[in-house]
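Slide 14.
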Amino acid sequence: MNRPSVILGIFLAVSALVLSACDTHDRQGSDPDHAGDDGVHTRHDDRDAHADGDDHHGHGDSDEPSIAITHFTDFAELFVEFPVMSVGNESPFAAHFTWLDNFRPVAEGKVRIHLRGGGLPEEEFSIGEASIPGIFRPVAVPAHAGQREVIVVLESAGQTSVHDLGAHTVYTSKDVIPAAMEEDEGNAISYLKEQQWQVDFATALVSQRTLRESIRAVATIKAAADGEAEISTPHDGQLARRGNSFPSIGTHVRKGQVLAVVGSPLGRELKTSDKGVSGTALRAPIDGVIAHVHATAGSYLKKGQSVFHIVDPARLWLESRIPESDVLRLTDADGAWVSLPSVDGPFVIITKGENANGRVVAFSQAIDPRTRTAALILEFINPDKKLRIGMLLEAHVLTGRTVDSVAVPLSAIVRDNGVQVVYVESGGESFERRVVQLGIRDGDFIEVRSGVTGGERVVSRGAYLVKLAASGPAEAGHGHAH
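Slide 15: predicted structure.
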């Protein structure tokens, strides 16, 4: 089964779970198709067209217009829906809270609604628990009419997230609330919070970043010139261990440590004493790890025969093969980054500045006639000894040129019908498909030259699921359990 089929199956399964969830909650009838944005949307529920549907907004059976707002703090995202308020009447809020550090629903806490300003007394309404993880349902019953600042406060997990939703009118009665204008939702894609919370989903802020230009090249991890050593027998003789064990692959050794001994030539037995086997000691010339063992204890060896290969994994070389067509662009190489298999984020080598963790060893002045490439060698500190000698990687060698531009996470880019697109969050549960023109890639971020602007948010994890929501059956976007 190919990858799109697998993802489609997951998406349909998640949609089925969301649809079944709505049967366990209030069924009150409203239009589940809605699209918010970073501001305020006022909408009038269409009861006639969806008389049999569930009211996922929790607004009851009234026909008053409703408001949808998405607001972010440093800690949390709030997507909230509530009917236009009037004096003495209940206005139930459906407040969806998502933690921004992991994009999981806020499961516990207290939510308070404050109505302030307008020269009127402050009013407060609160609820102490979520109706389901992520959704809190405080109910406001205003006592005063006028322009009121609406502030929603979440207190959870030792953090306080304050969401200022701006000024909203509290009317004297429902009768004077003006009818809402029908909004053109355009090509908005509905993808509900209940769906987002069940999958690996996240959004990221579109921001201005300094991006480093790079050249893509095939690279190999090698030992540094003084970071490996081959230990051979100095003469014919029998190999014996020194101490209780014989070194094996992966054994850490210190410079000067005796690894084994080579006895006298054939015809003379190894002499033993209380101090161990006598003979010529084979010592480690460097600190490092044994990478290969070419002989076993007790075997007879000829002079010059290799016994141990030692490497120092703390310092390694990255040898990149720079294509001939790119050689002239690389006038001031100041590092490289490589994507490592099964590791989040690239490994970066910096050769200049305070954060330098490597240096340029050599840049070949000759083009290899067979590969039409020139070798660039960077030495670097190997953190946690994760990189292994012999690894074949794709390297991105930094040219020294930078550009300040709008960028998004690389994971936000989806290829759709031959073009690169992102999905911009226009509201907590609505998204817009945008075709983008891409530029420089720097690690996990990529320049976007057109299609998005700074301050917008794009789907950075789960973008392909939003794509499926746009092309899947209409009911896949329904099923609120509000």
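Speaker note: The chain has three domains: 36-186, 205-220+315-461, 228-311.
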